[in-house]
Design goal:
The complex is a heterodimer. Chain A is an alpha+beta fold. Chain A has 3 helices and 6 strands, in the order E-E-H-H-H-E-E-E-E. Chain A has one domain: Hotdog Thioesterase (Thiol Ester Dehydrase, Chain A, Roll), CATH 3.10.129.10.
């Protein structure tokens, strides 16, 4: 069984290609928008906005979700996101794939059982065009400390 | 009836207390986590979570973020044609199943059709659980 990584397993420069990807359906987009109280017609009204944009918060959530199994799946706490940049729009019917690169892994200054991992996660559509880049930090537990 | 504001209607310094709030249920957290392919056991495994720092499941971070942004749309970004970026997203306190989230926003800047807005998420005790900044294109 393996979900996420221990602190010792993160090495700056390592890249994880996340798998599987996911196709975003009409249903996903409408539900995600409405359940998160986002009623911008860009996501809900095809007469008003025939392009059928995927909600930005869904692209973001899915990118994070895809990355967890290879990165923060054992995390003690997710500290936040430094930046989330949307480089291209994604449309209903597109698929999202992602990868993460370890930028830094350092020991916690106060607690010896954990470290702080800094990663960049990049998301792509089915044509390999980059749609989003984010950078975040999380606390990873050490394997041999308890 | 209107939803969101036009570029002309948004000015730096404006503050909005968004309404209504929303209680995050166990169903929400399980649904959002799994729909977004996040299978971290802290969100979906109550027995595992009982043995962790808070002794219970935590609401997935992106759900809190999506909800705070969603709540801000009626006052701010409801006419947005594109989101350019989020910056400095901070999870300041944990959110648990049953907590109710409210949101408020402040317009920070506007330039060449791009509006910068900061938003905060607060729980039912008025504690700030989330803060973030975002840049949106507003016609």
């Amino acid at each position: 069984m393996n979900y996420g990584r221990y602190f010792e397993e993160f090495h700056p420069g390592d890249v994880y290609k996340h798998w599987p990807g996911r196709t975003i359906t009409e249903h996903d987009n409408a539900w995600f928008a409405l359940l998160s109280m986002n009623q911008n017609p860009l996501f809900l009204d095809h007469h008003h906005a025939p392009e059928r944009h995927v909600v930005d918060t869904l692209i973001f959530s899915l990118t994070v979700g895809q990355s967890v199994g290879d990165t923060s799946g054992k995390t003690i706490a997710n500290l936040g996101y430094e930046s989330v940049v949307f480089e291209k729009p994604l449309f209903v019917g597109d698929s999202l794939y992602s990868e993460s690169e370890v930028l830094e892994a350092r020991e916690s200054g106060s607690k010896p059982d954990r470290g702080i991992v800094y990663i960049e996660t990049r998301a792509f559509n089915q044509r390999g065009e980059r749609v989003l880049v984010l950078r975040r930090r999380f606390l990873a537990p050490k394997q041999f400390s308890r | 009836m209107s939803y969101g504001r036009s570029y002309e209607e948004l000015e730096p310094g404006q503050q909005f207390d968004h309404w209504p709030g929303r209680t995050i249920t166990e169903f929400d957290d399980t649904l959002f986590s799994l729909m977004s392919m996040n299978q971290h056991p802290l969100h979906i495994d109550a027995h595992y979570a009982a043995g962790t720092q808070h002794g219970q499941r935590l609401v997935e971070g992106p759900l809190v973020i999506a909800l705070v942004i969603g709540m801000s749309q009626a006052d701010v970004g409801g006419r947005t044609t594109a989101t350019l970026e989020y910056r400095d997203i901070r999870h300041l306190k944990p959110v648990f199943h049953g907590d109710t989230i409210y949101a408020r926003s402040t317009i920070i800047a506007k330039e060449n059709g791009v509006v910068t807005v900061t938003s905060e998420g607060l729980n039912q005790r008025g504690e700030t659980v989330l803060s973030l900044e975002r840049k949106i294109i507003v016609p």
